[in-house]
């Protein structure tokens, strides 16, 4: 089966699974895969109009009266532009429309190719949501991506608080018609449970009640809300809690702080597949955790805003504004197994860190332990937050923050300054050297400006340390210049130029003394990228060995 036919077949099928009953089509060549899929779908009522403007207003009328989303399809170029008046009307009137515009593939854009214009975010702020689907490829994972995308589009168009039009731009490469071959790298059908859509969204303002089970897990990612309530409920239910540092749930007896390494062990991950996972916030730091989530039988995402729910693994089975975690009867074997493994892994990790001198994960672990209660710790978005996730023990009394929305390294010095100014207590930041250089102007404070109590702890490995832990590290010839990016900056001079107190840390035992002081100050810890990669490998190996008594 050619990719265009596969994508169109799945998109139309998922529209029907979501509840769409009417599709309006304005004929054209590039939209042929969608037209043929819609024509072949007996569960759809198909409407064809030769004028795109007329077609889009027909869809508007259908959706307005039925109060249900209606799909409208056109080809590329000015055909898509002719949808704009109806899209604007639907936006202002709150009418749910699913606008699917066919497009040329990226290699034809900007070349003067026939019927090719810039259709990315063509309707601007008139749509509630926009997505560029991307050119389809015959590889596993595409079907889940396509279905999840349509599900999100349908939910966002529906509202329920703010219904309106959404725009999916669908790029197709030729061939555009079926080629008679029905083979594909994965099934084009929906998930094995037979659910109409992968994510079943609960009604707003109502809590989702789940059956009692001892084999549950609470996962807490960045930006989570009502964390204390859910951690307490998980504790009553006998569930382990897997919380990222900025999730705010890494405390108490149920906190499993070594989950990154435990779930990286295939035997442990397989033996600890839960009946249900409840996710708060946006998990995104640990690849083993994300891989484990993909295999969860039941994955419930708690999202205060049902128009946008975090699901980076596209494995959510239910989405709700709130979930009731019931108390289940039975023994504590499930939780005990997690805690025993966590204890063994923690001992193994600490032994590695304590025997390797001043390493980046040890710096993160020790810093999180040394800070007094009531402190704020602002984390860099690259390696510092990951080192904290992998090395930080559970503790209370510490507020951790990071710019994990888009996870960029830009503006982090200024962000930390602002957070410190708003925090009632001492503030600290753990950032990388490139992060500091990217926003070194954030160190400049005029003589009359409010000055926060902020200690900037900078890990200086002379470049982009995270790349030494990624596959790019195997590219020996170009690696250092285009990924390692050494800078050779002496931060003592940078601190002097900004008038900041400066301390260099070369031994782990020096950190506690270096943190003392007040006002804005800079503490530099110099590390080596290759040695850091070796420490991370040793941590992984030590936990693996600890799991094999």
From TrEMBL:
Residues in Menaquinone biosynthesis protein MenD middle domain copies: 213-378
Entry-linked InterPro entries: MenaQ_synth_MenD (IPR004433), MenD_middle (IPR032264), THDP-binding (IPR029061), Thiamin_PyroP_enz_TPP-bd_dom (IPR012001), TPP_enzyme_TPP-bd (IPR011766)
Cofactor binding description: Binds 1 thiamine pyrophosphate per subunit.
Record keyword Magnesium present: yes
Reactions that this protein is recorded to catalyse: isochorismate + 2-oxoglutarate + H(+) = 5-enolpyruvoyl-6-hydroxy-2-succinyl-cyclohex-3-ene-1-carboxylate + CO2
EC identifiers of the protein: 2.2.1.9
Recorded metabolic or biological pathway in which this protein acts: Quinol/quinone metabolism; menaquinone biosynthesis; Quinol/quinone metabolism; 1,4-dihydroxy-2-naphthoate biosynthesis; 1,4-dihydroxy-2-naphthoate from chorismate: step 2/7
CDD domains per the UniProt record, alphabetical: TPP_PYR_MenD (cd07037), TPP_SHCHC_synthase (cd02009)
Keyword Nuclease: no
Keywords attached to this entry: Magnesium, Manganese, Menaquinone biosynthesis, Metal-binding, Thiamine pyrophosphate, Transferase
Enzyme class: transferase
Span of domain Thiamine pyrophosphate enzyme N-terminal TPP-binding: 7-121
Pfam families, per database record: TPP_enzyme_C, TPP_enzyme_M_2, TPP_enzyme_N
Needed cofactors: thiamine diphosphate; Mg(2+); Mn(2+)
Residue intervals of the Thiamine pyrophosphate enzyme TPP-binding domain: 391-516
SUBUNIT field: Homodimer.
Function: Catalyzes the thiamine diphosphate-dependent decarboxylation of 2-oxoglutarate and the subsequent addition of the resulting succinic semialdehyde-thiamine pyrophosphate anion to isochorismate to yield 2-succinyl-5-enolpyruvyl-6-hydroxy-3-cyclohexene-1-carboxylate (SEPHCHC).
Homology family: Belongs to the TPP enzyme family. MenD subfamily.
Name of the protein in its database record: 2-succinyl-5-enolpyruvyl-6-hydroxy-3-cyclohexene-1-carboxylate synthase
Source organism (scientific name): Microbispora corallina
């Amino acid at each position: 089966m050619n990719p265009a036919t596969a994508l169109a077949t799945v998109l139309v099928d998922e529209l029907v699974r979501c509840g769409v009953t009417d599709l309006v089509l304005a004929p054209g060549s590039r939209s042929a895969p969608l037209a043929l899929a819609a024509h072949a779908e007996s569960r759809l009522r198909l409407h064809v109009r030769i004028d795109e403007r007329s077609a889009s207003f027909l869809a508007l009328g259908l959706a307005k009266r039925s109060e249900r989303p209606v799909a409208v399809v056109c080809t590329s170029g000015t055909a898509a532009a002719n949808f704009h008046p109806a899209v604007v009307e639907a936006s202002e009137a709150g009418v749910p429309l699913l606008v699917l515009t066919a497009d040329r593939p990226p290699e034809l854009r900007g070349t003067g190719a026939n019927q090719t214009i810039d259709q990315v975010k063509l309707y601007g702020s008139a749509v509630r949501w926009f997505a560029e689907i991307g050119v389809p490829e015959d590889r596993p994972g595409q079907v889940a991506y396509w279905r999840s995308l349509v599900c999100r589009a349908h939910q966002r168009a529906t509202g329920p608080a703010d219904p309106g039009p959404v725009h999916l731009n669908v790029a197709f490469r030729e061939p555009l018609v079926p080629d008679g071959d029905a083979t594909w790298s994965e099934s084009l059908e929906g998930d094995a449970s037979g659910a109409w859509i992968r994510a079943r969204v609960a009604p707003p303002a109502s809590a989702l009640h789940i059956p009692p089970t001892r084999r549950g897990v609470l996962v807490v990612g960045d930006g989570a809300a009502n964390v204390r309530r859910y951690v307490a409920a998980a504790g009553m239910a006998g569930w382990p809690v897997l919380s990222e540092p900025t999730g705010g749930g890494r405390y108490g007896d149920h906190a499993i702080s070594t989950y990154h390494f435990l779930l990286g062990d295939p035997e442990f991950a397989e033996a600890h597949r839960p009946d249900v996972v409840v996710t708060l916030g946006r998990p995104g730091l640990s690849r083993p955790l994300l891989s484990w989530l993909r295999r969860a039988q039941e994955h419930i995402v708690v999202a205060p805003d049902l128009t946008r729910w975090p699901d980076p693994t596209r494995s959510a089975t239910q989405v709700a504004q709130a979930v009731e975690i019931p108390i289940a009867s039975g023994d504590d074997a499930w939780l005990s197994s997690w805690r025993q493994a966590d204890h063994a892994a923690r001992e193994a990790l600490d032994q590695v860190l304590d025997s390797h001198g001043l390493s980046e994960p040890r710096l993160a672990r020790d810093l999180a332990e040394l800070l007094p209660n009531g402190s704020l710790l602002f984390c860099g978005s690259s390696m510092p937050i990951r080192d904290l996730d992998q090395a930080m023990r559970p503790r209370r009394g510490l507020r951790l923050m990071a710019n994990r929305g888009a996870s960029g390294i830009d503006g982090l010095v200024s962000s930390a300054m602002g957070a410190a100014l708003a925090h009632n207590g001492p503030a600290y930041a753990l950032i990388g050297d490139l992060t500091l250089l990217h926003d070194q102007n954030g160190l400049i404070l005029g003589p009359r400006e409010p000055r926060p109590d902020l200690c900037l702890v900078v890990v200086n490995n002379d470049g982009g340390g995270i790349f030494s832990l990624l596959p790019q590290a195997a590219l020996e010839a170009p690696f250092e210049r285009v990924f390692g990016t050494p800078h050779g900056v002496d931060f003592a001079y940078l601190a002097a130029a900004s008038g900041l107190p400066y301390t260099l840390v070369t031994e782990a035992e020096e950190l506690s003394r270096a943190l003392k002081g007040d006002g804005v100050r800079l503490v530099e810890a110099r590390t080596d990228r290759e040695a850091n990669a070796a420490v991370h490998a040793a941590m992984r190996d030590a936990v693996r060995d600890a799991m094999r008594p």
